[in-house]
Design goal:
CATH architecture of the largest domain: 2-Layer Sandwich
Strand order of the largest sheet: 2-3-1-5-4-9-10-11
Largest sheet: 8 strands, mixed
CATH topology of the largest domain: Alpha-Beta Plaits
Number of helices: 9
Strand content: 15-25%
Number of domains: 2
Radius of gyration: 25 Å
Structural class: alpha+beta
Number of strands: 11
CATH class of the largest domain: Alpha Beta
């Protein structure tokens, strides 16, 4: 990767000029929320461009010093230059890595949902296996997790779950997991022990900050309350504290039953709804951009991103990057960072 071109420093300098002119306009602070965001963006750009221009100048200086030291055969100076060049290269490598998380909300916490697909108990068990995989991954990363909603299956596994994953760049990492995940194995729920294929859908959204505007008309909502349920569907509370919200125009349904009060569950459900409506809008924009570029887009259950095969052989394959991993047990135990990074690297290298 050519870091200098990928970071597009001339383009960022043009954006600095544009934002600087906007900030000098008399009506700039008429909308304080928008103004603060633009000023934050301006400050971040100035800091980033200043570092790159410093790095460019420093690299040129080191090259000039190297030529002089080489002529004088000054081994001590040559060693010092080599050490400084190595430090600069390490910093550059770190900035290249952070380029993977250059999206507006990549630094944010993430709301991750897992939904069992068609296939009954096998798919519900697969959804629970995926949930455990992500919880183990988050633990390995030092992230905090909070299960906001969990719907158990009748016999085993889960029908769906939503988890808040908190930590630096949680959404930046987890956005690589959006899509359908496929499992092939000998079913432990089949008396004949035949091979089954199961599917689960993973949704990932940023946990939006309060100042991010998502328009929700209260008249578009249907709010139902019910008693929280445990494994097998049995009620675990006498009072109706669980909340289910349906956004009528889109058909999006969210629920929360893990908090102790109905008010708390409603607040969490609204938080999830805001994120899903935002995500729906982003998907529409991406699909429209892809359509204009002539790029084929498969939506919903057709968008299979990864296969996990336990029979007749052991292999995890990411269909987007063609990366294959033979140690399926390690992957299912949360060792998925390399799979994520391979996809994120491919994403930033795709032509605009």
């Amino acid at each position: 990767m050519n870091s200098w071109s990928v970071f597009d420093i001339p383009g960022k300098e043009k954006e600095i000029d544009r934002l600087t002119k906007e900030s000098e306009a008399p009506d700039f602070w008429d909308d304080p929320t928008v103004a603060r965001k633009k000023m934050q963006r301006l400050n971040d750009l100035r800091e980033e461009v200043a570092w790159w221009r410093y790095a460019e100048s420093h690299a040129a200086d080191l090259l000039g010093l190297y030529d002089l030291a080489a002529e004088d055969e000054d081994e001590t100076t040559l060693q010092q230059i080599a050490e400084e060049a190595e430090r600069l290269a390490q910093t550059l490598e770190r900035k290249e890595f952070l380029l993977l998380f250059s999206g507006e909300y990549d630094h944010s916490d993430a709301l991750l949902s897992v939904h069992a697909g068609a296939g009954g108990t096998d798919s519900q068990d697969w959804a629970q296996m995926l949930l455990r995989m992500y919880l183990r991954w988050a633990e390995r990363q030092g992230f905090k997790t909070e299960v906001l909603d969990l719907m158990h299956g009748e016999e085993a596994g889960i029908k769906s779950a939503t988890v808040l994953v908190s930590g630096d760049y949680a959404y930046g990492y987890l956005k690589a997991e959006r899509g359908v995940h496929r499992l092939v194995r000998l079913s432990p729920f089949d008396a004949a022990h035949r091979r089954h294929t199961s599917f689960a859908l993973v949704e990932v959204m940023p946990d939006l900050e309060e100042d991010v505007e998502v328009e929700i008309n209260p008249d578009d909502l249907r709010i139902d309350v019910f008693r929280s349920s445990g494994a097998g569907g049995q009620n675990v509370q006498k009072n109706s504290t669980a909340v289910r919200i349906t956004h009528i125009p889109t058909g999006i349904v969210v629920s929360c039953q893990n908090e102790r009060s109905q008010v708390q569950n409603k607040e969490v459900a609204m938080r999830i709804l805001r994120a899903r409506l935002w995500d729906l809008e982003m998907q529409k924009r991406e699909e429209e951009q892809a359509r204009l570029k002539g790029k084929h887009v498969e939506a919903g259950w057709g968008n299979q991103i990864r296969s996990y095969v336990l029979h007749p052989y052991h292999m995890v394959k990411d269909h987007r990057t063609e990366v294959e991993v033979g140690n399926v047990d390690a992957v299912l135990d949360g060792d998925i960072t390399d799979l994520m990074i391979a996809y994120l690297k491919q994403s930033i290298q795709e032509p605009a």
